[in-house]
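Need a sequence for this fold. Nothing fancy.
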């Protein structure tokens, strides 16, 4: 079939690569979002999909809006049989949906009808789903409501961030999208309407959604941090200042300082932030905690028995445990950052 692929971010590139490599289909053009400012200089940069298409010598279309007449006219000239879509980033009007003979087929990263919307993977992690997946469906005017061609499932691992899970789904989903194109061309694949039950929505995650609320249970805090990593990034307030984490680190529920006699020092943790509330800049070794599999004393990640794994010396003391105001401050399971 002659295809026009629509996609924008890095997560869409594996699907484009799979269609180019399939040998059965001609990717005649790529539709992507216009160049956007990026970096400190705010220089206009092409999307990852545009860059990959240009490398492959494929025509790139960058309409400001999919209803632009110039874009619609060019799409009619190309006359695609089908338009596969992965994270394009704009709503397609009916006038555009009617152009390809076999419609627009979207690869969506959830098991529809669950998590319809812009952020299905983030919401799946934050909701504590044990299994998620990807679906290919025929795009209609409704929000991710079209009939489904195929699905695949993927386990949500206990330490998965949304970035980890999305990467795996992008590569697995690329094969699903290519197989869907094959089945549509052969006439062996037919879309099935989505069930009316089990519909959940996944709107875009906002900065407010990513704020860690320490009054919440520890399990909820863990899910929020993992679900908002890498974007928009979990954050909290400490003494009126925002402090963020780049990634959660599992601590294997091991004692932080097993040799200490104080109950406070025997508190266990399930994750440790990459930027601690007493140093939000991340520039100090103290602010870059590292946890890992149990290798140290009493199952702790650090060979010294400190589950933070990084023990900078405090000037004038010769001691290496991370402190705040001269006192040891471990994480807790109660949902509060400190005991």
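Here you go.
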């Amino acid at each position: 079939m002659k295809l026009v692929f629509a996609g924008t971010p890095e997560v869409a590139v594996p699907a484009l690569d799979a269609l180019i490599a399939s040998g059965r289909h001609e990717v005649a053009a790529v539709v992507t979002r216009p160049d956007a400012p990026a970096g400190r200089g705010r220089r206009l940069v092409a999307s990852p999909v545009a860059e990959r298409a240009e490398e492959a010598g494929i025509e790139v279309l960058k309409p400001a809006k999919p209803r632009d007449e110039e874009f619609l006219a060019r799409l009619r000239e190309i006359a695609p049989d089908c338009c596969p879509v992965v994270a394009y980033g704009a709503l397609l009007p009916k006038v555009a949906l009617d152009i390809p003979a076999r419609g627009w087929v979207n690869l969506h990263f959830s098991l529809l009808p669950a998590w319809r919307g812009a952020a299905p993977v983030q919401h799946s992690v934050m909701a504590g789903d044990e299994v998620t997946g990807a679906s290919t469906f025929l795009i209609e005017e409704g929000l991710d409501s079209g009939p489904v061609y195929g699905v695949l499932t993927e386990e949500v691992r206990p330490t998965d961030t949304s970035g980890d899970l999305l990467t795996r789904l992008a590569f697995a989903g690329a094969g699903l999208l290519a197989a869907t194109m094959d089945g549509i061309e052969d006439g062996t694949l037919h879309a099935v309407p989505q069930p009316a039950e089990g519909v959940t929505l996944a709107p875009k995650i906002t900065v407010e959604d990513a704020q860690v609320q320490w009054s919440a249970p520890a399990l909820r805090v863990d899910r929020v941090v993992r679900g908002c990593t890498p974007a928009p990034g979990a954050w909290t307030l400490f003494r009126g200042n925002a402090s963020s984490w780049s990634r959660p680190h599992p601590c294997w529920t091991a004692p932080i300082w097993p040799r200490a006699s104080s109950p406070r020092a025997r508190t266990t943790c399930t994750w440790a932030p990459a930027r601690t509330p007493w140093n939000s800049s991340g520039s100090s070794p103290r602010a870059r905690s590292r946890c890992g599999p149990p290798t140290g004393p009493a199952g702790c990640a650090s060979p010294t028995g400190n589950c933070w794994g990084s023990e900078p010396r405090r000037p004038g003391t010769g001691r290496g445990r991370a402190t705040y105001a001269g006192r040891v401050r471990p994480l807790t399971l109660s949902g509060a950052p400190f005991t």
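For context: Confidence is low (pLDDT under 50) at residues 251-339.
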